[in-house]
From TrEMBL:
It comes from Microlunatus endophyticus. The lineage of its organism: Bacteria, Bacillati, Actinomycetota, Actinomycetes, Propionibacteriales. This is AAA+ ATPase domain-containing protein. InterPro entries: AAA+_ATPase, Cell-binding_unc_protein, P-loop_NTPase. Pfam families: AAA_33. Residues 21-153 form the AAA+ ATPase domain.
């Protein structure tokens, strides 16, 4: 699901007018994998970037993501996330989507938005072992540093999670042994390659 390719000549980010770049960075990973940490660092690493978090949108709607929401509520939140992303892209801002992005049809929906907006999309797979996610879930329940996820909801999510496939060409980050700076450097490398291809 994660491999290395030569991206020197590909447009993973598209340069807009002037030297600015806009696009979609789509986070994907299991709950408690560290996606929000990667998203926050990526937002600081890239110029003119903003995070769109589906958990944050749920909280704004007074919904608890970890309780297992009806599909229609998730659909509404997803629609709101895409609407915010579209507005940001129109303003020239790169969007970093903080979500599990599973099943794959959700990732494909973001690809359709990128095609509609004529901007590239980079998929970042935060590949954390299931046992690490479970350990973090237990630690969070004790510390309450973020919203809890019900046990049965987490178990169903872990069992049904659809990881990216090779054809999706993700940037892979392993929180078990990966270096975040290397992941951010890869995003930057694709950013620079896109500028060079203007």
């Amino acid at each position: 699901m994660c491999g290395s390719r030569d991206h020197g000549g590909s447009l993973h980010f598209m340069a807009a007018a002037g030297s600015s770049v806009r696009g979609i960075v789509l986070l994907c990973g299991r709950s408690f994998s560290g996606k929000s940490t990667v998203a926050a660092h990526a937002a600081r690493h890239l110029d003119a970037a903003e995070v769109v978090s589906l958990d944050v949108i749920n909280a704004e709607r007074n919904l608890r993501s970890g309780a297992g929401l009806p599909i229609e509520e998730w659909a509404k939140t997803f629609e709101m996330a895409q609407s915010r992303a579209r507005t940001l892209l129109e303003s020239g801002t790169t969007v970093i989507v903080d979500d599990t992005s599973s099943p794959r049809f959700l990732r494909d929906a973001w690809r359709r938005l990128a095609a509609e907006m004529e901007v590239p999309l980079v998929l970042v797979y935060v590949n954390t072992p299931v046992e690490v996610s479970l350990e973090r879930h237990a630690a969070n329940r004790a510390a309450r540093s973020r919203a809890d996820v019900d046990d049965e909801v987490l178990q169903e999510h872990l069992e049904s999670f659809e990881a990216p496939t090779p054809d999706e060409d993700p940037v892979c980050h392993s929180t078990a042994d990966g270096n975040l700076s290397e992941t951010l450097d890869e995003l930057e490398r694709r950013f620079v390659a896109a500028k060079a291809d203007q």
